[in-house]
Amino acid sequence: MTVDVATTVPEADRLDALHAVLESGSVIKATRMLNALHPAEIAHVLQSMLPRQRELVWGMVDDPAQGEVLLYLNDDLRDELLRDMAPSRILEVAEALETDDLADLIQDLPATVTREVLNSLDEQRRERLETALAFPEDTAGGLMNTDMITVRPEVTLDVVMRYLRRLKDGLPDLTDNLIVVNRQGRYLGVLYLTDLLTNDPDDSVAEIMTLAVQPMLATLDAREVANRFEQLDFVSAPVVDEDGHVLGRITVDDVMDLIREEADHQFMGQAGLSETEDMFAPVLLSARRRAVWLGVNLLTAFLAAWVIGRFESTIQQLVALAVLMPVVASMGGIAGTQTLTLAIRGIALGHLSAKNLHWLLGKEMAVSLINSLVWALVVAAIAWLWFGSVGVASIIAVAITINLLVASLAGALLPLFLDRVGIDPALAGGVILTTVTDVVGFLAFLGLATLLLV
Fold it and tell me: Longest C-alpha distance within the chain, in Å?
């Protein structure tokens, strides 16, 4: 009897088992195991492979599954695989996808293939695809799926049930309600499937429908969409244009993808990396991308070095200053990063805006003042014991206090400023904050020493 490995091996161990089979060289067994996985798991396998192994593994993926697998891959790897695929094969893969998935993929296709894909679609599907592509990716319209079921308020539940039974492809995935619209296609409410099944078939949709579910404007920011799904526990939500016409719906799986991408973006952005970066990308490509932020950081480092250079004579006279300088900058950097992270998260969740910024500033400045006083005394005591100088101890205490207060102020204001001018706070905030805390820390410490000790 043949045993299906995919069903007997625990899910957590399946990927390890597949890697082991691939390393053993058993192509047939590996192919069977690979195609028993979910497309997201296949994408995970591909992304964890070395470049020379990916082509072999990609060739093992069944043709019908390749389109879905492409959707789960990071941008770099997806682009790499698409470049190596024949246009005719890309066309076959694209045509097999659902409309919302096709909208995600088509933006990465070569222009010639995109035209062929659009020409191959029937009129209704082309219109749905064009509707989905009409909105930026980071809006409700960019997230929505045009595959939905609408009903009219005057029909009975029995009519709705008979209509659903005749659907050739069944209900769209994650359908928990039907969208109720008037004759002009404007949104009126939703009819939950549980209400459809548990009420009298002779009742009309208007009698049973729910009016409390507010639709989302197609132009609504994707972050706000995620917030509403989290707060209201939506499985799906209707999307409308400014006139109230229903355009599509957003489902919770798309929101989960959005949340994961946002988390990856925040994490990778702190190091100046893109969330789509391929871990096993070519060396030159990775080096070129990272060189940009290394260059930016170098410029900021030279700025801090220039400030130090202005006080060269002071440092020569008091060696203790050179020893203690990193302490001042480091303390400010940590305090600023804490506030910066809090502010970036607040912006991402939609909690922080210009309206409540003053409260955050007051709170963070109070926290910073308390911490600066406590740790300034600790550092001053250590400096006094180490160098035996009350002057040096006093100056470093004051410098730390100044730097922590400025760091908290910068950490709160920088994200909002960068967001307003169109610069990603997660990507640029850390570099700018480091510059601010270094420059202010060195300037305060060395400036006070020049004025009072030299």
Answer: 95
